[in-house]
Amino acid sequence: MLNILLLHELLDRFAKLFPHKLVKFVNANQKIMSSVIRVTKEFGFEMAHALFNHDGPCRNVHGHSYRLFVTVSGVPENNPASPKNGMVIDFSDLKRIVRDEVIDRFDHAFVISGCYNCEKPGRLREMSENTLVVNYQPTCENLVADFAGRIIKRLPGGVKLCSLKLYETASSYAEWVASDNE
């Protein structure tokens, strides 16, 4: 609170010396506080999968070191009394959401499609204590769409998911963009 009072005192002195400059400062500050800003956080996890009925080597069990980039947007909070002042979302809150919805579920998991016949998932599950059977082919494209749905449900009001980039390898990724899915 002392810093806010000191700032107001400095602005009052500045206004008396340069009244035309203060107007520009206040307008710039208002513009900054009403701007929509995008913020991005990067995550990493390890996951194995096998692609049902694939015509190449990806039909076999194999794994990747995934990199997930989560971009959200919103207007930064403009409340000096709030601990989140100046933030679209606290990075620790975004980390918790992505950890709960994606990382804790998929990290070191073996993911397969429910399309496998009844006996094969049982045999595949014996290979891993953390086997996830999903209702889609677990390609990078389908995973990133699934992750978007999981994350959107958990974002606070005023924060919008803009995009996800899921790197399956260093040079290959799938991207989900909100404007393409409206």
- Please give the CATH class of the largest domain: Alpha Beta
User: Any idea what the CATH superfamily of the largest domain is called?
Assistant: 6-pyruvoyl tetrahydropterin synthase/QueD
Helix/strand structural class: alpha/beta
* Sheet having the most strands: 6 strands, mixed
Q: Calculate Rg over CA atoms.
A: 23 Å
Give start-end ranges of low-pLDDT stretches. none
CATH topology of the largest domain: Tetrahydropterin Synthase, Chain A
DSSP helix fraction: 25-40%
Series of H and E elements: HHEEHEHEHEE
Portion in strands: 25-35%
Number of domains: 2
The helix tally amounts to 5
Mean pLDDT, to the nearest integer, reads 86
Q: What strand line-up does the widest sheet have?
A: 4-3-1-2-5-6
Distance between the amino and carboxyl termini: 43 Å
Total strands? 6
Structure description:
This protein is an alpha/beta fold and 182 residues long. The chain has two domains: 1-34, no CATH class; 35-181, Tetrahydropterin Synthase, Chain A (2-Layer Sandwich), CATH 3.30.479.10. Helix content is 38%, strand content 28%. The protein has helices spanning 2-17, 19-34, 91-106, 119-127, 140-152; strands at residues 37-49, 62-74, 109-113, 131-134, 160-169, 172-177. A six-stranded mixed β-sheet has the order 4-3-1-2-5-6, with helices on both faces. Helix 1 (2-17) packs across helix 2 (19-34). It starts with a helix and ends in a 5-residue tail after the last strand.
